[in-house]
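This section describes the prediction task in plain terms. A model, or a person checking by hand, is given the sequence of a single protein chain and must write out its three-dimensional structure as a string of tokens. No templates, partner chains or ligands are provided. The sample shown here is typical of the held-out split.
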Amino acid sequence: METRPYGTTGEKTTIIGLGGAYLTASSFADGVATVHKALDLGVTYFDTSPMYCSGVSQAVLGEGLKDKKDGYLLATKLGYFANPSRYHSPAALTTQLEENLRLLRRDHVDTLQLHEADSHHWWSTDTAVKGRLNPDAEYNFNDAPALQTLRQLQTEGRCRFIGISGNTAVNMTRVLEHVDVDTFLLAFNYDLIRRGARKALPIAREKDCVGMIGAIFASSLAVANPDLLNAPPNWMTPELLERYKKIFVLQAESGMSLATLGVRYMVGQGEMDTIIIGARNPEEIEECVRAAEQGPLPVDLAQQIELLGVE
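The expected answer:
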């Protein structure tokens, strides 16, 4: 499997990483087996969060990685506080990290990220605003208490690298332009159809920041499902429906599974350093790794998929 530089940190990671969002989809034991399978396949990046699997994801990784402490990078996150004031509290952030480390069975992690850094609460104490960044508000991103706390934890050796993660391309691009961090993770914005991450990833590259992509299957792009086309969900506009129809036709003609098609398309893109796969079982992470090992799609097929992209 291809490896790519982890930004300018001097580290390298496999193009496919294992994400922890669905590790307990069937059972704790199956999650541990998925981690073991990833290790056996040579995966060298593992990503989790205190909110994944209601926090159990970190315990799964702690168990799955307990006998192999090196040879890969381990990342977790901070956030998802019920009380908005805790987003600005060094004590609350540090306490959450300590709990993360307890579950992961570590005294430090390689990468520590702010989870959903496109949320208003990370950067402002104005509780009248909920959800994502206010497009009309001014934020002092780089001097926010959360980032200052990350830098302090990095200085103390509790993490080697610091970063931001989030789900909305416009907001995450805005944050990235104003902060100095080592890593950048954007989910739900790059797959067989969506291309929103293409605005952010070049900025990460310019800033010598690791650029990572997640959730490439989240929008019903893991398995070809004819029912999706027969009864489209509310989020699927008529334009998207036509694009999905064409993707499913290309997938059928290719003879590949939809997941394999998606991974190989993404591997052919040069903007990102790592593609994080939220596998639910050992079979899913193996399918994605095997797909990555085959390399990028044939040029003509990749070009046809390229024409179906939307920002």
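For orientation: The first strand starts at residue 3 and ends at 5.
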